[in-house]
């Protein structure tokens, strides 16, 4: 266990303690880094070391990252950087400092509060806030071995600010949160992020996340108390990696955008004037999955399943993502929305009104196979990687009525 030990203007130390009985007792082991001296001798203002976070690397090396202000009096000068040190003897001693995150072009940048994980693809990813020059917005950087890091402060994560924490899930997804009180998910190992939902407590600070089951996470943070101060609290949340609904009773979790929606006879029905849609939230998102559902056109027109959806609003093409649908004109089609419409695939086949059609969409690394009726041979096979994450939903047509049933995602 590593921690900061601070006597302001006198002593800044990152100490390591060790337990050999499951945390019942602890003994001092080593000091990772420090800056100490008589009061008034450490500079004005004095600068220290803070916020250690440990990982064990693939080769068994114990590694720690921390926020480091000690380089402010050097040339080049850095107000604060993220540093790393390695230990090959279980934390008894530590090697030379490694620079992880720093801004060579701006000495006032203050990368801090690092948290890092090894992802399923073998890479290491670190997240941190950058104060001083970036309003404490949250950034990430990646490394192939956890020991070598490119220059700079990396890539900003949208919608996150201050005190970040990230978690690599066993299914390959990466979660990230911060003092902004929203949860972001990456399906592509930190290359892109989307905001999924507010966090467990809504108004909280200095959060942490741990995976406690295959489909469960624990969310721990410091929550405002009505009487002043904070409580450290924990809530458990379900990871929606799969989903199913036969609409026997309700559409809980679905958000409607336009149209007139009803649940009757065990089906989800919409009378749609202009491509009206209903979206499942929070997102049960994976990078690779199978989406299935039954569609019935109650009169002439079209209906579709939509997927990898983000930024939905009311309006015909007001979303980002994809749709696969059927049309009574005798068509099965696939298209992409980006607040406009682009057709990606179209085949002719018999589609009748008042007839149920089972549709299956298999998404695999950007490849989309669309099956209708015949589950052995896809009607459409197309690859497009514009959108790799998002939620699912259903969409009506233009001046027609559509029914949906047995929506599932696995």
Describe this protein with a few key phrases.
single chain, 410 residues, mainly beta, Neuraminidase, Jelly Rolls, 8-stranded antiparallel β-sheet
Give your account of this protein's structure.
There is one protein chain. 0% of the residues lie in helices and 55% in strands. It has two domains: 152 residues, Neuraminidase; 167 residues, Sandwich (Jelly Rolls), CATH 2.60.120.560. The chain has no helices and 33 strands. It starts with a strand and ends with a strand. By secondary structure, the protein is mostly beta strands. A hairpin with a 5-residue loop joins strand 4 and strand 5. Strands 19, 21, 22, 24, 29, 30, 31 and 33 form an eight-stranded antiparallel beta sheet that branches. It has a seven-stranded antiparallel beta sheet with strand order 20-23-32-25-26-27-28, with no helix packed on it. A four-stranded antiparallel beta sheet has the order 4-5-6-7, with no helix packed on it.
């Amino acid at each position: 266990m590593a921690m900061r030990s601070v006597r302001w203007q006198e002593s800044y130390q990152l100490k390591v303690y060790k337990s050999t009985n499951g945390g019942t007792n602890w003994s001092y082991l080593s000091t990772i880094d420090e800056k100490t001296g008589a009061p008034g001798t450490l500079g004005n203002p004095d600068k220290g070391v803070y916020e250690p976070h440990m990982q064990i690397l693939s080769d068994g090396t114990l590694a720690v990252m921390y926020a480091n202000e000690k380089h402010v009096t050097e040339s080049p000068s850095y107000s604060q950087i993220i540093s790393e040190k390695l230990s090959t003897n279980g934390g008894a001693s530590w090697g030379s400092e490694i620079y992880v995150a720093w801004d060579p072009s701006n000495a006032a940048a203050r990368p801090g509060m690092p948290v890092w994980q090894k992802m399923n693809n073998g890479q290491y990813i670190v997240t941190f806030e950058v104060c001083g020059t970036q309003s404490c917005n949250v950034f990430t950087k990646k490394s192939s071995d956890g020991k070598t890091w490119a220059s700079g402060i990396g890539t900003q994560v949208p919608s996150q600010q201050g005190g970040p924490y990230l978690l690599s899930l066993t299914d390959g997804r990466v979660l990230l949160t911060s003092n902004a009180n929203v949860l972001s998910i990456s399906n592509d190992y930190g290359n892109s992020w989307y905001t999924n939902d507010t966090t467990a407590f809504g108004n909280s600070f200095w959060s942490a996340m741990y995976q406690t089951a295959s489909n469960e996470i624990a969310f721990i943070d410091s929550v405002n108390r009505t009487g002043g101060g904070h409580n450290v609290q924990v809530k458990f949340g379900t990871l929606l990696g799969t989903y199913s609904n036969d609409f026997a009773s309700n559409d809980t979790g679905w958000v409607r955008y336009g149209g007139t929606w009803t649940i009757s006879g065990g089906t989800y029905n919409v009378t749609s004037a202009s491509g009206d849609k209903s979206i499942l939230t929070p997102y049960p998102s994976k990078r690779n999955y199978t989406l299935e559902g039954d569609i019935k056109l109650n009169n002439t027109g079209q209906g579709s399943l939509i997927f990898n959806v983000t930024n939905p609003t009311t309006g015909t093409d007001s979303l980002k993502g994809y749709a696969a649908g059927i049309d009574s004109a005798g068509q099965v089609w696939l298209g992409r929305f980006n607040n406009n419409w682009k057709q990606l695939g179209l085949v002719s086949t018999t589609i009748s009104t008042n007839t149920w059609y089972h549709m299956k969409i298999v998404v695999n690394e950007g490849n989309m196979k669309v099956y209708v009726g015949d589950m052995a041979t896809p009607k459409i096979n197309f690859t497009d990687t514009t959108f790799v994450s998002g939620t699912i939903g259903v969409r009506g047509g233009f001046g027609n009525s559509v029914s949906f049933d047995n929506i599932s995602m696995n």
